[in-house]
Amino acid sequence: MWSYLARRLVQALFTLLIITVLCFILTRLSADPLAQYATNPNMSAADRAALRERLGLNRPLPVQYLRWLGLAVQGELGNSFFSKQPVSLMIAQRLPMTIILMVTAEIITLTVALILGIISAVKQYSFLDNLITTFSFIGFSMPIFFIALGLILIFAVKFKQMGWPYMPTGADIWDPKDLGQLVRHMVLPVSALVIITTANYSRFIRSSILEVLGMDYVRTARAKGLTERAVLYKHALRNAALPFVTIVGLDIPYLLGGALVTESVFAWPGMGRLFWEYAQRGDFPVVLGVLLIVSTAVVLFTIITDMVYTLVDPRIRLG
Amino acid sequence: MSSDTLNSSGISTLKVESTGAALTPRQLIWRRFRKHKMALAGGIGIALLLLFIIVGSIFIPLEKANYVDLKARLAPPSAEHWLGTDSTGRDGFSRVVYGGQISLIVGILAVVIEISVGTVLGGVAAYYGGWVDAILMRFTEAMLSIPSLFLLIVLGKFLGRDVQTIEIFGLSFSGSVGIVIVVIGLTSWMYLARIVRANVLSLKEMDYISAARSLGASNSRIFFSHLVPNTLGIIIVSATLGLAGAILMEAYVSFLGLGVQPPTASWGNMLTSAQSFIQRGAWWMWVFPSLFIIFTILSINLMGDGMRDAFDPHSSRHM
Q: Average of pLDDT values for A98-106?
């Protein structure tokens, strides 16, 4: 167990190194970070060259990378070229907003998906199951912006036209510290996220439960005369939940990155939108910082999920 | 497909299928696919869509799809413009036809790249093992650890630094189409590489591979004549489901404004402009391209699911 963990951690370090090299090359070379000054009349070409020199942007790429890595390891992610703020501060401001949005969406999704998945599996091939399966198939095939734009069109635009109580679109100015405003602005993005993710999860839960219900020990439990309820909740569900734990565990770190499209459509001030806004400007320290934090979380959570899985499922032995 | 055909489901499958004359594996697969009603529905859906796009492109000239008519801006569906017009008065119906062409071409070519990279990297990693395997798998893991949309945006920005117009067969495409194809292809091969690797790892221990080797077959012959054909089922299923993913990704990237650039239409970039005009209630700009995306993805997913079941001898109980 411990030697396995040590090996995984060494591998993870290597993976992270590849990620940083890959991301550094892609983001550093995708745009000139000083392009915004090119049109500035107060700055001559000589000034720009001096600034480039001072920021170390004219040194060889490997040197720039090592310098960035050296600081990043100490938690120093540099400053944004655009807002001049430290990247770590910008991320620290956006992260709570993303976490509030994503955790709320994830909790609702899990609850709804679990209920739908169980109904669907227990009443296999019934009208209800067909309905749920149809909806989850459609939801699975849908880009999230379809739902997002639809929700805005109906609940923000049309409701407002009708003079009904309507939802804000996020384009207005609001204060995230005001709980009432926060909740009002969360309703639409959370709904969009829940609809799309539920489709995915409920399908998974359904097939997972059906698989377990076909096992010999479930037949044994039924043969012992247990009620269908006891079979389902005491035997089937616990085992069906195992692969589901992995799926959710592996999804958690991605929540940190936020839902880029959802956050953009609803103008939610989270990590995804931070990334998207600064990627468009070619502001590589910000983009790199977000990438580094999200990918590190993904790598770590993969190991944690694997470890937790071996603890809850005694059939798995680590080699 | 799999070596353990002796479990309970394998036996029941054999019983069902051995009633008639002996069938080749290919006939068995086709028979299972035909019996899968949803898969057949998906296949019909795709056929209808192709028919729509082909017939549409014959009757509607490309000029009409890109024709700007500022007097007919934001017109709702009418006898003249069946699916309404967009913010510059371009005809929605013609753009859906030509956008579909682009979306499908992008999807198919991206999957070709995905399959080539995934198969070669996964196969090489498994076949050669050792440090080749270690490095390739760490690289795969690194790519997987960066959330796909983030990776897509970073790579798209990197490759999209200077975009030119491409002329093929007298049609001029915005160079962005080529970039979108490469970007989607290069960010989606990782799962396939892992699956191919696992499959080749188990195959290369089989006796017929040592037989081939003792007969003096070269590495590349063993790889391309023995290992690749036996992995084909997995690759075909991945390609089908990958096509749905690629079309969806095109929609996401174009929606964010990084993908196919106007005047060339794609279902994704038609929705970008829809987002700006949703506040004015221009629902047709949002509904129609989205419905085409959903219909396409749904059909492909249904067919892919059917193919997965058809290629998997264990799957009869899930049908």
A: 90
